[in-house]
Amino acid sequence: MVSVAINGYGTIGKRVADAVAAQKDMKIVGVSKTRPDFEARMALKKGYDLYISIPEREKLFQEAGIEISGTVEDMIDEADIIVDATPEGIGAKNLKMYREKGIKAIFQGGEKHEDIGLSFNSFTNYDDSLGADYTRVVSCNTTGLCRTLKPIDDLCGIKKVRAVMVRRAADPAQVKKGPINAIVPNPPTVPSHHGPDLKTVMYGININTVALLVPTTLMHQHNIMVELENPVDIEEIKEELNKTSRVMLVKASEGLASTAEIMEYARELGRPRNDLYEIAVWEESLNIVDGELYYMQAVHQEADAVPESVDAIRALLELEEDNKKSIEKTNKAMGIL
Ligand SMILES: NC(=O)C1=CN([C@@H]2O[C@H](COP(=O)(O)OP(=O)(O)OC[C@H]3O[C@@H](n4cnc5c(N)ncnc54)[C@H](OP(=O)(O)O)[C@@H]3O)[C@@H](O)[C@H]2O)C=CC1
Ligand SMILES: O=C(OP(=O)(O)O)[C@H](O)COP(=O)(O)O
After folding, report:
1. Is residue 143 in contact with ligand 1, taking CB distance under 6 Å?
2. Three-state helix/strand/coil letters over the chain
3. 195 marked as part of a ligand binding site
4. Which of 228, 287, 288, 334 has the fewest CB atoms inside 10 Å of its own CB, making it the most exposed?
5. Which of 12, 66, 306 to mutate to test the pocket of ligand 1 (most atoms within 8 A of CB)?
6. Closest residue to atom 12 of ligand 2, CA basis
7. Protein residue with its CA nearest to atom 2 in ligand 1
8. Which pathway is it part of (predicted)?
């Protein structure tokens, strides 16, 4: 059983911690925080040893009566691998520390591909991270694109993809982000960074994306248009997506006509935090017009890329050479369809 530490027990970090703790072949030996808040207390309640990333703040934790086990450097000494889930850009700064300590590390999508040198998705390029020292799990949006474009490419080939990424402005708990009442071209430049980001894990794919921020916190929504290489029947595509792991077809006609209703369905599934790990594709949106495939999907940004971090641990530590076997183990432990 390998020992995993989480540097940055936040939206993603706490979900990865629970996902790792659910696995049979790995365990959590520590998580880190910078503030003695309710999340820190929850970490201890879950049985995770708590470490601090800013040593000068030790007194704050003592005054709050929150027991800490040491600094992040102490936590690293207990672990075989680090999952860095610190805010965008901080992971790259931590890389120097990880190198000096000689520990493998997994980063998240907020880091730049070029800063880490390798990016990861369980379905598209797992093998490239086998035995690597560092890799970067691509962001929730890019993970969402991978999950559905990969099976489509395998089935009938992809000539070109165009996608409009309608992104949530903030996570539900992020009270300082927006917009509250605007639609923001973000970035205003076209194409957005999502196309190049997808190419870091789906090599050679021809894609251009446009991205917006809208005042919602529940999910991202993607509008995808695919020029297909070979003719295919829409029913074949539906069948392929239906059997694809970490993807689910949903029907507007059955009351799943919006991100809000999909998240209500996620509540019914009863997973931790009502998380939806699967990419939800609206079945009615799947259509082929003049040889071009159209479809719409929704992405629970807080959760969809979390199982990929678990698979990335197996790849870096070479616990499982076959991505399909890792995906199966991760899914089984997390109750993923
Ligand atoms: N949120 C999302 O929807 C998604 C985020 N990502 C990516 O995941 C990564 C983490 O994002 P997210 O979980 O949202 O971030 P959060 O802000 O929710 O959590 C960040 C965590 O890092 C800790 N932290 C803050 N500053 C430092 C520091 N200097 N050193 C060490 N730890 C620190 C925070 O501790 P404390 O709270 O105590 O200050 C917190 O535990 C980013 O790369 C992001 O781009 C990817 C997909 C989706
Ligand atoms: O939108 C996201 O990544 P993206 O920049 O790849 O679209 C992630 O959800 C992270 O977004 P955030 O940086 O607003 O937390």
Report:
1. no
2. CEEEEEECCCHHHHHHHHHHHCCCCEEEEEEEECCCCHHHHHHHHCCCCEEECCHHHHHHHHHCCCCCCEEHHHHHHHCCEEEECCCCCHHHHHHHHHHHHCCEEEECCCCCHHHHCCEECCCCCHHHHCCCCEEEECCHHHHHHHHHHHHHHHHHCEEEEEEEEEEECCCCCCCCCCCCCCCEECCCCCCCCHHHHHHCCCCCCCEEEEEEEECCCCCEEEEEEEEECCCCCHHHHHHHHHCCCCEEEECHHHCCCCHHHHHHHHHHHCCHHHCCCCEEEEHHHCEEECCEEEEEEEECCCCCCHHHHHHHHHHHCCCCCCHHHHHHHHHHHHCCC
3. yes
4. 287
5. 12
6. 170
7. 302
8. Carbohydrate degradation; glycolysis; pyruvate from D-glyceraldehyde 3-phosphate: step 1/5
Residue 90 Cβ < 6 Å to ligand 1:
yes
Q: Does ipTM exceed 0.90?
A: yes
Q: Is the CB of 304 under 6 A from ligand 1?
A: no
- Domains recognised in the chain with CATH numbers: 2-137+305-334 (3.40.50.720), 140-299 (3.30.360.10)
